[in-house]
Amino acid sequence: MSATSYQQMIFINLPVNDLDASKKFFTELGYSINPQFSDENAASVVISDTIVTMLLTKSFYATFTDKEIADATKTSEVLVCLSAESRAKVDELVDKAVAAGGTASPKIQDMGFMYGRAFDDLDGHTWEVVWMDPAAVQG
Predict the structure, then answer these.
(1) How many beta carbons lie within 10 A of that of residue 3, not counting itself?
(2) Are 116 and 109 a contacting pair, CB within 8 Å?
(3) If we measure between CA atoms, which residue out of 109, 60, 101 comes closest to residue 84?
(4) 2, 20, 74, 109: which could join 116 in a potential S-S bond, CB 3.0 to 4.6 Å?
(5) DSSP-assigned states of every residue in 29-70
(6) Could you tell me if 41 and 56 are in contact, meaning their C-beta atoms sit under 8 angstroms apart?
(7) CA–CA distance from 21 to each of 26, 73, 102, 124 (Å)?
(8) In which region does residue 133 sit, left (phi positive, over 0), alpha (psi from -120 to 50) or beta (all else)?
(9) Residues in Cβ contact with 35 at an 8 Å cutoff, skipping those fewer than 6 apart
């Protein structure tokens, strides 16, 4: 396989309190669950062809680490940032997250060439959604 045909993937593993509720939340955002990599302990949420979020029950998540599992509602353990194709798509995804039970951050980042908002999912994990003007990226 040549270097140009291989696309590196990102797998984001997150501990969740209620797997079924978390699956419902992410499907309400428009993402799908890959049943091939899902069971009673985990759900594989397909964000894109190269980004997958693995939602893991806390007991299953604990089998992958000796560290204490952070309570994301009280402490920040990670900021996941997703790109969006437009400012409107940023707002659309954050609004869907709020409608599905998430919490929007009151901060809006608007620099003209870059626009972003954030939300916390049901377990407090922070998801940033950002649009950047392609002309700004090129120059």
Answers:
(1) 5
(2) yes
(3) 109
(4) 109
(5) TT-EEEGGG--SSEEEEE-SSSEEEEEEEHHHHGGG-SSPPP
(6) yes
(7) 9, 16, 11, 13
(8) beta
(9) none
CA atoms within 13 A on the CB side of 117: 19
Residues with Cβ within 8 Å of residue 114, at least 6 apart in sequence: 130, 131, 132, 133, 136
Classified as helix, coil or strand, 20 is helix
Task: Say how far apart CA 31 and CA 121 lie, in whole Å.
Answer: 14
What are the tens digits of pLDDT across the range 119-133?
999 999 999 999 999
The Cα–Cα gap between 22 and 103 comes to 14
Predicted pLDDT at 5: 84
Residue-wise pLDDT for 81-97, tens only, equals 999 999 999 999 999 99
